[in-house]
Amino acid sequence: MTTAYVNRHWGRSRASASAALFCMAALLSFGLAAGVSAQIAGHAEYCEIALTGCPQDYDAAELVVPLNVVALSTKIQACGIADSAVTPGSGSGAAPAVMFVIDHSLSMTSGEINDTLGNRFRVTQALIDTIYSVYPDAEVGIAIFADALVFDANRDSNLVRFQGDTSTVRGGNAQLVPRQSYMPLLPLNQAAKTGGSNPFYSGSGPAPLVIDVYRSMFTVPASQNRQATITGGPRERSGTDISLGFEAALEAFANSNKPKENQYIIFLSDGTPSVICGGNASNPRCGKVNDYIAGVNTPATYTVYLSRGAAANTPPPASIAQMTGNIKANGYSATNASSDVWVLQSNYSDLLALMMENIITPMLSKTSGDAKKIVISSAGVSDSSGVMDGDFRFSRRLPLDTAEVTAVSMNISYDVRVDTLVNINGKDTLVYARTAKDSLFSYSFTVRRSASPGADWRFGQNIDSECGAMPTLDLQFQGQSLIGKEAKGNMDRLTIVLDNTGGLFDYNKVIVQVLNADGTLSDLEEFTLTKSGSVWTYSFPREVSSTANAGDKKLQHNGLDSIILVFRNPDIPLDTIRVSVPFISNTMLFYDGPGDPARPGVDKLPDTITVRAGDTTDIYVKLFNDKDGKWDSLMTADPGKITWTVSDPRVVTLTGGGEHGQIYAETAGGTYTVTATYTDGSLVIVKQITVKVATGDPFYLEVVFDAGDINKKRASVDSLAMVKGYTFEKDVDSVTFYAVERDRFGNYIGHADNSVWASTDPVAITADVSSNGNSALVRRHGSKFDDSLYVAVSKGGLTVRVKISVVIESAVSVGPNPFVPGKSNVMDRLNSLGPETARIYGPIVQNSKGGESATGVLIAATAPRS
Questions:
Q1: Cα–Cα nearest to 238, from 268, 276, 267, 269
Q2: I need a surface site. Which of 13, 186, 470, 616 has the fewest CB within 10 A?
C-alpha cells in the first residue's frame, strides 16, 4: 500500500496551493490509520455530515460539528472550476525554460537501489508532456550524469557536446570523454533534427518535433512495476559528478532567451559527489567535485532527493541543503526564492504529484473545466469516485478521526481549459486556448468535533446531517442483561448481543473482543457474531483459571475480575463501544473424595475422566468462594440443593445425593456428560464433567473368523462355556483365525497379542501363527473328520477352543478283488477292516440274504460326516 507523499521543506515554508494543478492519470492512494477511540458517551445516535456546496467552497475551512458526528457522507457535488491561478514568479504566464538534471549512478539500481524502477525517467517524461500540453513553445533540456555525462554526441543529432572540462571515464568508453553531451534547451514544438548513430526518435511519420524526441528518449512500460530506462542505454554507471550535471545545465541556459525569472532546474538525485581521482591531479574534474554547492549563477532549482529509507522529516544531505540555500539567495532572479528540496522514496505517483504541485502549477494562467474524478482522504482512509449525475459517490463513508480535529483532503481531476489572453487595443483578447487533460486540483479542510458546535452549525457552515441510532453492546446470561449487575460463577456461558436496530451503519461483519481486567492474568478472545435481523449474537464459555489460553474461544480469568467487551468498527474509528461487567462468583469443582479438598488424598478431577466398565466411580462437588478462593462447606450442607444428570442414562447409571455422585457403566467406548447443578434461589451454578467409559480387565478370549467382526460388542459370556466351532467346507483348505480379548461384558479390549496356538492333531490341522501372535492361518491337510479335532488359543491363563469339522465328498470302495462268485465272504471282509467297521456295517450284512454266510462284493458308501 503506497501512502501520499509528504512535503518536507528546509528553508522557506511553502503554503499549499488551493488549486494545485496536477496533469496526471495516476491518483494518490492513502494508507489506513489504525486509530483506537473511546466510546462516544452521552449520545443515543450517530450522525454523518454532507457538504451541500462545491468542494472548493470548503478549502482551508474549519467545520465545527457535534461530538456524535463520526463520518462524512458518501456523496459530494462534482462542481466545475473557474479559477485564476497566476503565481508570482511564473513569468506572467509565459512559456518557461526547464532543464532536467538527472543522476544516473549505480546506486539507483544496485546497493542502495534508490530508484530500481527508473521512476525518475517515468516522471520526467510525464512532466515534459504536461509542460507541452500547457505551453507547446516551452524550452526543455536534459543533462544526465554519473561519473560523466552519459550521452554520446554521435548518437543523436539533437545532442550538443559539453564544452567544459571533462574527465577520464572509469571502466567505460574512452571515446566518450570528448563527446560527453546533453540535450540543450529547445522549444518543444520546434522541428527536431534527424540522424545519428542511434537516434532517440526512429518514427517513419512526418518530420519529428522536439517533443517527439523527448517522448522517445525513455522507454516507459505501461506497468509501473516494470523499469523505465533510457532508450538504447546506457545503463547506470559508477560515480556521481553533480557539478558536471549543473555545469551542462548552466551551459544550456546561456543560450536561452527566456527571462531569468522563468528559468528552472529540476534536479533528481540519490547521492552526494563521488569522483575517484586516485591521486591524478591532472584530472580536471577533481577540483570541481563540490562546485555545485555554491549555487553560483544558477536559476531556481527544485531538488528531489530519492532515498530508499526516506521517512517523514528525513533531512537531505548537508551538501544538498547548503546548495539549495545558496541558490535561493544568489540573486539570479525573483523566482530563485522558491527553490526547495524534498526527500522521498521512489514512487511514481508520489514523485509525480510532488513535481506537478510545486513546479507545473505556477505555469498556469486562467483555467476552467469540469470535474472528472476525486480522491478524498479522511482519518487515514481514502476513496475515489467518478462523476455520477453531477455528484461524486463513494463506496463507503469517510471516517472522522478519534482526535478532536480531522484533516480532510480532496484531490479532484479536471479536464482544464487553459486560456492565454493578450491585450489588443485595450481589450483582453483570447489568442490561444488549449486543454490540459486530467489535471488535479487539491482542496483541504478540517472538521472539529465539539460539545458546543452552536445551534446553527448545519446551515451556518453549508453542511447537512443524517443520523441513526448507535448500536448497543450487551453481555447476557440466559437472556438477562448483566450490564449494571454482576457475572457470577454459575454463568459458565455468556452471550454477546450487539443491537443495531435503526442504526446509521450497516455492518457486513461484527467482531467483538472479550478480555479480562485482572492485572495478573491477561486473556483476550475475538468472536465473530451471527446476524439475525438487526441483532448480532455470540455465546462463549468462561472459566475461573490461573492461566490463560488465548485463542481457545474461552475466556479465562481470575476471581475479583471484570469481563470487558469491545466493539470497533474497522471503517469508522469513532464507532467504538466498550462495556464492562464485574465478576463475583462461587466456583463449583469436582473432586474424587469427600471433605476438605486440602487434605491429603483428595484431588481435583480434570475436565475429562475415564471410568472402567463394571467399576463404580465416586465423584464429589465442592464450592469455593471466589473472593478468597476458600472451600465453602456450608453451601453443600443441604443435599437437596444439588441435582445430578447424565447425558445418556440408558448406558451410564448415575446415582447422586447431595455432593456425592456415583457413576457405573457396562458398555465401553462412549463419551458422556455428567452435570451437577447447585440451586439456591436465583443462584444457579452448573458444572459438567466429561466421562469416558473404558473396558474392564480381560475376562475371556474369543476367536473370530472375519476381521470386520472383531470390534463388535458381545454379550457377557462365561469363558468356560466359550467353545466355538468352525467347519471346513469341501472347497476350503485354509482360514485365518483372529484372537481378541474381551472383558466380562463382552467389550472388545484388543487383539490377543502373544497368544499360544495349538492343534489336537497337527497332522490333520495346522495353525501358522502371525508374528505378533494374535492371529493364525489354520489349514486342513486331507479329509480327516475325527470328532476330536480342535484348535486351542491361550493367553494369560485364558483359553478358548475351536472345534474343527470337515465336509468331504462321499467315498466308494470295492474289494476284495478279483471277485469269486459264491466264495467271497462279505462278513470276513468287514472283519478285516477292523472291529469298528464291522460294528457299524455288520448288522446290514447280517440282515441281508444269506446273513453272515453271504458272499459277494462289499461296496461301502461313506458320508462326509461320521
A1: 276
A2: 13
Length of the chain: 866
- Contact (Cβ atoms closer than 8 angstroms) between residue 356 and residue 24: yes
Q: What is the pLDDT of residues 728-737, one digit of tens each?
A: 887 888 999 9
- Cα 434 to Cα 372, 378, 803: the distances in Å are 17, 34, 111
How many CA atoms lie within 13 Å of 515's alpha carbon, on the beta-carbon side? Answer: 12
Q: Which residues partner with 805 through β-bridges?
A: 727
Rounded Cα distance between 677 and 669, Å, is 26
DSSP class of residue 262 equals G
Question: Does an H or E element contain 210, and which?
Answer: helix 210-217
Q: Residue 326: phi, psi to the nearest 5?
A: -70, -40
Lowest mean pLDDT: which of 80-89, 207-216, 512-521, 704-713?
80-89
Q: How many CB atoms lie within 10 A of CB 753?
A: 14
Q: Count the Cβ atoms, other than its own, within 10 Å of residue 456.
A: 8
Tens-digit pLDDT profile for residues 460-491: 899 999 999 999 999 999 999 999 887 876 67
746/699 Cα distance (integer angstroms) = 9
- At residue 587, what is the residue type? T
Cβ burial, residue 809 (10 Å; 0-12/13-18/19+):
exposed
Q: How far is CA 545 from CA 422, 565, 582, 593, 673, in A?
A: 85, 19, 16, 22, 21
Of 399, 507, 406, residue with least CA distance to 32: 399
Positive or negative CA dihedral for 829, 833, 837, 838? positive
Q: Which residue bears the cell 532536467?
A: 100
What would the pLDDT profile of 99-125 be if each residue is shown by its tens digit?
999 999 999 987 778 999 999 999 999
Helix or strand holding residue 350 (H, E): helix 348-355
292 by Cβ neighbours in 10 Å (0-12 / 13-18 / 19+) ranks as: buried
3-state SS of 670-694 is CEEEEEEEEEECCEEEEEEEEEEEE
pTM: 0.40
CA distances, 567 to each of 193, 510, 709 (Å): 68, 8, 56
CA distance 810 to 826: 21
Q: Tens digit of pLDDT for each residue in 771-824? A: 899 999 999 887 766 678 899 999 999 999 999 888 765 544 444 445 566 677
Alpha carbon distance 431, 421 (integer Å): 6
DSSP 8-state assignment for residue 338: G
Q: Which helix (H) or strand (E) segment is 830 a member of?
A: helix 826-832
- Amino acid type, 743: D
Give the SS3 label for residue 401. Answer: coil
Which pLDDT value is given to residue 208? 94
C-alpha cell at 504: 446509521
Q: Is 229 helix (H, G, I), strand (E, B) or coil?
A: strand
With 0-12 / 13-18 / 19 or more C-beta atoms within 10 angstroms meaning exposed / middle / buried, residue 729 is exposed
Contacts (Cβ under 8 Å, ≥6 apart) of 379: 33, 35, 398, 399, 400, 401, 402, 406, 573
**Longest CA–CA separation in the chain, Å:** 169
Query: What residue type is assigned to position 449 of the chain?
Result: R
| Enclosing H/E stretch for 247 | helix 242-253
Residue 423 has pLDDT above 50, yes or no: no
Query: What average pLDDT score do residues 640-645 get?
Result: 92
Nearest to 776 by CA among 767, 766, 785: 767
In the chain, % of residues over pLDDT 70? 82
Is 231's pLDDT higher than 60? yes
Helix (H, G, I), strand (E, B) or coil at 864: coil
Q: What is the 3-state secondary structure (H, E, C) of 459-491?
A: HHHCEEEEEEECCEEEEEECCEECCCCCECCCC
Poorest-confidence range of 153-157, 170-174, 231-235, 441-445? 170-174
CA 322/CA 330 separation, integer angstroms? 12
